[in-house]
TrEMBL record:
Protein name as it appears in the record: Shikimate dehydrogenase
Gene3D superfamilies, A to Z: Leucine Dehydrogenase, chain A, domain 1, NAD(P)-binding Rossmann-like Domain
Protein's pathway: Metabolic intermediate biosynthesis; chorismate biosynthesis; chorismate from D-erythrose 4-phosphate and phosphoenolpyruvate: step 4/7
Assigned keywords, A-Z: Amino-acid biosynthesis, Aromatic amino acid biosynthesis, Oxidoreductase
Amino acid sequence: MNKYGILGFPLSHSFSQKYFHQKFLKEGIENALFENYEIADIAGVSSLIQDPDLKGFCITIPHKKNILPYLSESTDAVKKMGACNCVNIRNGKLFGYNTDVIGFEKSFIPQLKSHDTKALILGTGGAAAAVQFVLEKLEIDYKFVSRNKTAGNFSYEELDKNILDNYKIIINCSPLGTFPKIDEKPPIPYQFISSAHYLFDLVYNPPLTKFLSLGKEKGARVQNGYEMLKIQAEENWRIWNKT
């Protein structure tokens, strides 16, 4: 039995396991199993990979960055952004990839407009690194936003009408608003959102987070993370099964 899975903590509402179970049934893929590996301490990966049937796994919060020391090799993208969300196991060695990049890029581009030249990235975790990578590729200027002020970036308290008038793209890379805490939202001044804005939320459950809902009320373009997850899941599968 070929095994695959997702590594993270917690995994109570994992997209991946349900997606791959349905994929295996729909496509008649036999001899394959996808499991949730709910590991709080990344050191647990050492025992996990002792299973000879495990062919690869994807990675979510909070391990996209702390998996790096366990990788034998990684792509240039992983090295540049310092985050990995897909591991292929070959001969007992871990090879790291980042499929957040292709997932975000392909789901993000369709709603882009010519005036979308500056972006705010809400959050600074592993997913934010992939977003940063894509924005640089697309030559879109960006600033990170976090609770604490850092050099060259914004704190949430600094955000005002002037900043939001200049930064038409707002990308939520934080888990705020994820089920079951659906009333949570990034603390931005939503009163300054307009129809010129594009709000992208990496959260997929619920489909319309409070962040997106408040933007939609202002006429903004909105996109959740579901399409991104589907695209990267298929890319993970391709990586795990390439020869």
